Please model this.
Amino acid sequence: MACFAVTLCVIILSGFINQLSAANKDTCDLYSAVGQSLMLPFVYETLGNTHVLKWTHNNTLIFYRHQGKVSVGKAEDVSASGSLLLKNLQFSSAGAYQANVLHPNNTLAKTWNGQVCVMDKVPKPQITYVCDFKSGAVKLDCKVAKPQDLAFSWTLDEKTLTSETSQTLSISLAQLKGERSFACSATNKAGKERSDTVRPICKSPSPSPPPLLCFTSKTVVAVAAGGISLILFLLICTIVICCCHRRSKRQERLREKGELRMISLNKREPDSTGPSQLGSSVSNFCFDCFKVSLYRLVAW
Ligand SMILES: *[C@@H]1O[C@H](CO)[C@@H](O)[C@H](O)[C@H]1NC(C)=O
Ligand SMILES: *[C@@H]1O[C@H](CO)[C@@H](O)[C@H](O)[C@H]1NC(C)=O
Model:
């Protein structure tokens, strides 16, 4: 009875181990990406025309050559030593491949088995970065369309950063001094793709501008222009007023003289036109004076 139980146990255990090894068989010997080519590395050095060469995929015959004649598959896909080239791989190209070489007397000369796994092509990564002045670091991100099952690596000035293997990289701003170039690579078992080189530029906000003077440069320019115009306007006004004042004083003196003359020489006609004429000539002169000042300023 005990013997029976032990036997049963052994049977169950062996079945379990068999299953385990079967699961192990599912792991891949060769990896490739969709669209790529893959050479199945079977080598039989003394392969000749008298041998039979057979290749199977998932137990389906895909290549058969006997007496130098190829009846299944393409002759050019097989090398002199018997390796098979798989072109333009698809997901359906995955699976178990087997090569068999038979002697002319139909005995097996050499066999080879391989499990091929086909994966998505690694997308080309793209680096984005953020300057973080609070923490004094630049944070780089190695962006890829499908980041699953990918390993990442980074280079700084073309030197691999061996300790950086995550999708993001943080570098202190102090380390960024001088133009530093970064690149990242995404890798899976089927291939590797590298990003373009990126030179992060982190311009710190100008060293501590007092918050009250936080104007945009446009505002500053506008205010400066306004100030200059105001000064020019005041300058012109001052010149005009000075000119006019001086002139009117002279005119007044002339008028006094003229009136005296009129009083002494010409008492018959009423003195109606004199002062108004003088007044208009004063304003004319002021206008001329203003024009001249303006021209000078423009010339200056
Ligand atoms: C071969 O088997 C694998 C699984 O082992 C499967 O993914 C693949 O599609 C199969 N291909 C063909 C052509 O049967
Ligand atoms: C078949 O041929 C091979 C090489 O020609 C030889 O090594 C092998 O012993 C032969 N086997 C038998 C059963 O004749």
In short: The helical segments are 2-25, 217-265, 273-299.
